[in-house]
Each structure stands twice: as C-alpha cells, then as structure tokens.
C-alpha cells in the first residue's frame, strides 16, 4: 500500500495552460512561437524554422492556453475538491526574466506565482515546481543559440536562485528540467535548439546537456543553502524498452537503447558522474570530446550536488528491432521503435503498457536507490460532451486504474514511491501537437483546436473517480 503521506495530485506546465503570453511584462518563450496542429513537430523540425511567429500561416494556441493566468483560483478550487495533496506546475522563465539575460527579475511575474502558491497552500495542496518546463525565454534561443552556450548556465542560475529564494520557504519539492533526455530526439523543447541554430548536430546536444547538468547541480546547491530540507529532483521521460525477441542482437540493441535514452541523464544527475559508456556513446554520435567544454569545477559540482529524487513521465513502452525490416513502426512521446503486437494504442498511436510502468519503477529504483515520483502519466483522448453536459471518460479511468495497480505492485516489490501526478489534470494545449482535442484532464475545458469556446470548466466522470482514489489512498479503484 502507498505511504500515508503519499502525494496524490496532478501536473501541468505554464506554457500549456496559463495563456496571457504578453501580460504583465512577460517575454516570449520558445513555446510561444510553436504553431498548433498535428504538424507542429514537423514545422519546428524543418530547416527553415527560425523561431518566428507567422500568424498569417499558423495559429498559436499557447498564447491563450486555457486562461489559467486569470482563472487559476477556480482551477485550484477544483483540484482541492478532488482532494489533491500536491499540484505539479512550472514557472514560466520568461515571466520572471522576459529575455532571460536580465540582471533583475520582473516583479509582476513573481507576484503571480506568489498568488498561485498561496492559493495552493490555502487548501493544503503542496506545490511541486518544475523550474524549466519547455518554456525557456525565446531570446536565449535566438541570441545565444540555446543551451549549447555556456552563458545559459549563469542565466539559469540567476533564475533558479530568484525563484528558490522567493518560494523556498513555502515549496518543498522542485525539479530542475522537464524531460531533460527528450533532447536525444528533439532538442527544440528542452534545449532551445533547432536545425537553424545547431540542433541537428549531436556535438551541440551533448554540450547542451552538460551545461544543463551543471545548471541543475547549481540549483541543488542553491536549495541546500536556503533550506537543507528542500527536495530537488531531476525529471526524465521513461519508456520501458523491450527487444522484440530473444535474438541476442535485439537484446544488445535494447541494452544500448536503455543506456542512451532512459539512463544517461539520470546517471549523471543522480550518481553525480558521467557513466562508463559515455565515451562509446560520444564516438557513436560523432561527438569530439576534445571540443566539449567540461571543466574540473563542473565535474566536482556534479559530484557534490546530485538530485534527491527522480521525477519521470511514463506514457508508453517501446520495442527495439534490429533484425527485421518488415516490422511496423510506432509513434509516441518523442519516441519511435516498432509496434508491440501485445499492446493496444491510444488514438494518437501511443502504446498502452501498464505492466511496463512496474518494470520502469523497478529498473530505476534498482539502479539508483533514490525515491521515485511519477509526475506525468495519462491518456490523451477525444472526449465527447453528452447532451446533458456529462463526459463519460471510462477509457481514461481504465487507463489510470491499470497504471495505479502497476504502481502498487512496484511498491510491493520494494520501490520507494513518493507520489503520482497524472498529466494534464485539467485539459490544456498538447505539447506535441498544439491541440486541445487531445485531452488528458479530469476537468473539461470548453475550447477547440481553433480557439473557439467559452473556456468553461466542467467535471468528467474521471473527476469523481480520482477523488475516490485519493480519499482511499489508492485502495478504492473501482
């Protein structure tokens, strides 16, 4: 059974729900120039993409989000009604430092998060804050080239110090970078790098990672100096990976897949040092180690200030096949691989694998022996509003129930699990497609992909179900 103080809640990101993208001194973020629609990643990944807004050609749903900036009190009240013990959200970097390189923060931005944090605390909801969640200031991407530039360490350190100092006495749980390993496949979101500013070159990706590792350790150091009880975690995508069969070639390929995607970033951030396979990995991807800027001071910082826990997202598993050319491909959370014939998939092709979550938890805890926090998990689906206004999302309940059952099994296995915050606890703009129709929430928001709707909030069937789950500490999943 889960701990008595288990952190049940939900998760969002500032750029996907706040809106108010120009309000109160906020600057543009990289998310603000990402267009809506299923072709979002193709547009961003094209050689021509240059971090510019083209409203004649695209819509930009992140600009409005779901108007959480104005309606956060209403939303937090709904979270409290469900019984949330915690709420994971992010601080929009460009609300605090509009361009990212200023010396002084924007007080209006800080006051917004003062109010948001206090609103959570008024209901006894523990804030869980991601410092950087796919929303770095656009200026840092266009003027500095994104995270491959070491100057960003200084800018992030200033940002982290500002928010940790301001909120550290009220907020106990933090994460430094959202899904830091996502840059392996798509560095635009977490590193601010696309083809036009070096994102296609793995040399830059690995340098950017190093700079982020250093910045993450600096955030841990700052937190320690403010209050030694503050918990700072890393955050990764975890995709349990299987070799398609017992052919040793596929099993060896799966070993490498796990090392490169699931473990590399956590090896550095949790263990405090680069893993033994790093040199081979660099060689594979054409990284010239002599050109990587890594100092002895950096390595000492990584060693002395590792993270306290591992936050991770889990949506799907993947299959590795190195021996066949005829297997069908699969889509997913920045991942590919081939289709698993034993699994069903979501409407967006993400393979649903609750048992894979138990495996993931055992793999992570067995490797690192630090607490785990599942900070994203959920089903993106098209929800239909019935004539009476009800929304029967039994498919979402089934998905979440199966994953919570898998969590229970992992806890029985001995895994130390801190909490669970399903993704998009209220409908918001999808990061991968910029759509509203890809809904995750317990709370429905009346808004379509073209921005039409009242923005009114209403409860889905999963709202009352999750309320019951939390009240019973996971015992009642019926």
Automatic annotation (TrEMBL):
UniProt entry keywords in alphabetical sequence: Glycosidase, Hydrolase
Q: Which InterPro entries match?
A: GH, GH_1_N_CS, Glyco_hydro_1, Glyco_hydro_1_AS
Active-site residue numbers: 376
Question: Matching PROSITE patterns, A to Z?
Answer: GLYCOSYL_HYDROL_F1_1, GLYCOSYL_HYDROL_F1_2
Give the matching SUPFAM superfamilies. Answer: (Trans)glycosidases
Membership in a protein family: Belongs to the glycosyl hydrolase 1 family.
Give the NCBIfam families listed for this entry: PRK09593.1 (NF007158)
Q: What is the official name of this protein in its record?
A: Family 1 glycosylhydrolase
Origin species: Candidatus Enterococcus murrayae
